[in-house]
Amino acid sequence: MSDPEITDGFVDTEAADALGPPLPGELDAVSPWWMSGMPLDHEHHRLMRRRQVPIPWEKTTAGQLTTAERGRLAETWRRRAAAEYLAVSTFAVLAIDLVSAAAPADVLSHCVRSQLDEIRHAELAIRMVEIYGGKRISPPPGMSRLPEDKTQTKLAQAVANTLLVSCVSETYATTVLTATRDLTTDPVAHAVLTSIYSDEVMHARLGWSYLRYGLERGGDDVRAAAAAMVPRALRGVANVIERERPIGEVTDAVRAHGLMTPGEERKIYSECVREVLIAGFEALGIPCGNVADEYGEEWANAA
Ligand SMILES: [Fe+2]
Ligand SMILES: [Fe+2]
């Protein structure tokens, strides 16, 4: 990449991006009703463009669904919009933990980038609410909190909270998104899930990388803090999966728009706990005991 051009004393970051000219529609707002209306839109689109996967919005097949099916999908995407929006604050809090622990630049850039990604996921989700439900919503306010233990070192706390946010939640998100995408045939839902999936992979990678980094630099206290977080983190995701679902049947048509049954999600999580999460933690030398047993066959079949 050539040096960014200097224009009027400012670095032309668009030239630095080396992304080439925007494609038609690429700098349009995903959910224009959610914008502030202030002169921030150009820079917003430029930031978001960095990770944009084109979504063929006009190809939605939502019109072929029944009212009940559309309602089920609208409510699901409304909940997803709220969760994605809240995740912006989760990574903001995690960034504070990481800076407190003197995390290196690449770890921080990934964490801060994740906030931008979660804003875009919220934008995509509220657009999906409009597609299925016909309503233009904004996500509700919220504020994530992460566990704080003043007796721990900053490194131990940052590692434990990264394990919670990135290794467990984001890794599970990638496994469930892959499975959901495989059954999605609606082109818009498929493209939206693909866009979100490609970011969540990076959010999970941030976690596993920092976990290893922290374990290599920290002492037994870091390992112990990570081990203590494992059951707590697994329970956190399980609570979400066990939660009551929106009213409405998950018909084959609904599945084709990117929705699985709670039973299917339980099976995926149960496998993910055993084969990915616990296997990964133990490979890094974090003792997990028999915590996976709680999410064994009985739990997986309980929906
Ligand atoms: Fe997300
Ligand atoms: Fe994420």
Care to describe what's here?
The chain is mostly helical. 63% of the residues lie in helices and 1% in strands. The protein has a two-stranded antiparallel sheet with strand order 1-2. Strand 1 (6-7) and strand 2 (10-11) form a beta hairpin. It starts with 5 loop residues before the first strand and ends with a helix. Mean pLDDT is 91; it is low at 1-16. Bound molecules: fe (ii) ion (2 copies). The site of one fe (ii) ion has 7 residues, from helix 4, helix 5 and helix 6.
Number of helices: 10
Q: Which compounds are bound in this model?
A: fe (ii) ion
Number of strands: 2
**Overall pLDDT level:** 91
N/C terminus separation: 53 Å
What's the short version?
This protein is mainly α. The protein has helices spanning 13-17, 41-49, 67-100, 105-133, 154-182, 187-217, 220-242, 252-255, 262-283, 297-300, and strands at residues 6-7, 10-11.
Annotation keywords:
303 residues; mainly alpha; two-stranded antiparallel ribbon; globular; disordered N terminus; binds fe (ii) ion
Reconstruct the topology from this structure.
Elements: E1 6-7, E2 10-11, H1 13-17, H2 41-49, H3 67-100, H4 105-133, H5 154-182, H6 187-217, H7 220-242, H8 252-255, H9 262-283, H10 297-300
Antiparallel strand pairs: 1-2
Helix pairs in contact: 3-4, 3-5, 4-6, 5-6, 5-7, 5-9, 7-9
The structure holds fe (ii) ion (2 copies).
One fe (ii) ion binds at residues 87, 114, 118, 170, 173, 200, 203.
